[in-house]
Amino acid sequence: MRPSGRNLDEMRAISIETDVTRHAEGSCMIRCGDTHVLCTATLEARVPPFLKNSGLGWVTAEYGMLPRATHTRMRREAAAGKQSGRTQEIQRLIGRSLRAGIDRSALGERQITVDCDVIQADGGTRCAAITGGWVALRLAVNKLLKSGEIVTDPIVDHIAAVSCGIYAGQPILDLDYPEDSEAGTDGNFIMTGAGQVVELQASAEGATFSRDEFNELYGLAEKGIAELVKAQAAATS
């Protein structure tokens, strides 16, 4: 049924390699099948102006794709002089998602910027960026705790994301590009390790879907999130 030969509820192979860059306070390379994303977390002793003297920290994100991350070369957005609407939407999603797993008062007045750079794309890049971004964030916070700069762990739970969709009439988990490009329904599910929903994005790309089909997608997402959380925990233990 699936071009890859995977079962309907089978994830792509997941690997998370940590400490892959020298300078970032937290870093990892997450590979979900043929989608590879470099995630780094940078600590700064400042917050945006609207948070000054609030006692609250901030987590934000930036996202980008290398020119040959896809089948054909894309022009660098820096060369074009502006970010695409897609890039802006995705990096805001990553930031919102990661903030959902943070106690900002425990973080104190400091900012963590998570950069997610897609090295190779084969579907699900935003989901891989969120999942890997959490690992980079976890590693950066570990350094704060180890140095004694903070005494309470501000990370309250895992944050992970996975895509689900309806392909050839069947609900499937973790779409790769051939599936994503042909799916009748496409969705991204961002959840905590405890199974709480952070954000859902689901749309009828070629055909509408029913409540029962949505429930099937939700069940697949819960299974996938559990596997991703297990991989995150193994990478950061």
UniProtKB/TrEMBL annotation:
Its EC number is 2.7.7.56. InterPro entries: ExoRNase_PH_dom1 (IPR001247), ExoRNase_PH_dom2 (IPR015847), ExoRNase_PH_dom2_sf (IPR036345), PNPase/RNase_PH_dom_sf (IPR027408), Ribosomal_Su5_D2-typ_SF (IPR020568), RNase_PH (IPR050080), RNase_PH_bac-type (IPR002381), RNase_PH_CS (IPR018336). The keyword Transmembrane helix does not apply. It comes from the Bacteria. NCBIfam families: RNasePH (TIGR01966). Phosphorolytic 3'-5' exoribonuclease that plays an important role in tRNA 3'-end maturation. Removes nucleotide residues following the 3'-CCA terminus of tRNAs; can also add nucleotides to the ends of RNA molecules by using nucleoside diphosphates as substrates, but this may not be physiologically important. Probably plays a role in initiation of 16S rRNA degradation (leading to ribosome degradation) during starvation. This is Ribonuclease PH. It comes from Gymnodinialimonas phycosphaerae.
